[in-house]
Amino acid sequence: MIERSYEKFFRQNRLPHLWCPGCGNGIVMKAIVQAIEKNPTFTQDNTVIVSGIGCSSRASGYMDFDTLHTAHGRAIPFATGVKLARPELNVIVITGDGDCTAIGGNHFIHGCRRNVDLTVILFNNNIYGMTGGQASPMTPLGKKATTAPYGSVDRPFDACKLAEAAGATYVARSTAFHVQHLVKTIEDGLNNKGFSFIEALVQCPTAYGRRNKMGDPAKMMAWMRDNAVMKNSWDKLPDEKKTGDKFPIGLFYKAESVDYDTAYQKVIDAAGGGKQ
Ligand code: SF4
Ligand code: MG
User: Fold this and answer.
1) What is the pTM of this model?
2) What is the mean pLDDT of the chain?
């Protein structure tokens, strides 16, 4: 039997998972534990996984760390609370495109603005999966959803640009197809002291792919392979070639800036270390 060292990070008694056959969520969940495993300072006792609500947010229940499965859109405030109360912990947020950029959108931009030392991984399946296939703020123009049966006319967020503009200090994108790249991207995000944001494209064959005639899960992954362009190459492309379904992946932004628990500790110290 092949020994898979990362399996110790899963709650075996909670498996099998409830995701649809061919769903990309498991690929990203596995990439997260592989990234954690690469950093020996991250242990099951000092790492907290916080998730919101939705298909991707079920991942926290399968991962054998201290975990919080919270309310819709509220993972970042819960995670901020954990980080401020226990700054020595590593706090990872798992969220979806609906969870993070619709009901949780305000928490998202303010988490970025404060540069809270969190690693936020957005599983982007371009739709609300669990709640019934509604369009999310990241559903591409023209794509169908239960709330957009003729195709969405709402312009979607580019969550990476949003995170950078709002103040995140590590911003990157990868996909469920580019697994090695995804693991490295998450690993680098975990090592950033500040708000790290990683968008991971995932195939959702059930709520998104079927409705938009994208074919089976393998075809959806081939679409990621054929349309993702590494940032270095993307930057050299003339604008007329940045068309159709093409999109960039890679590290978009990295900066050094004081993180929120360090800044807040100064307030605690100024107030007498919390002593009366
Ligand atoms: Fe995955 Fe989509 Fe099924 Fe949810 S609805 S488990 S995202 S394939
Ligand atoms: Mg979604």
Assistant:
1) 0.96
2) 96
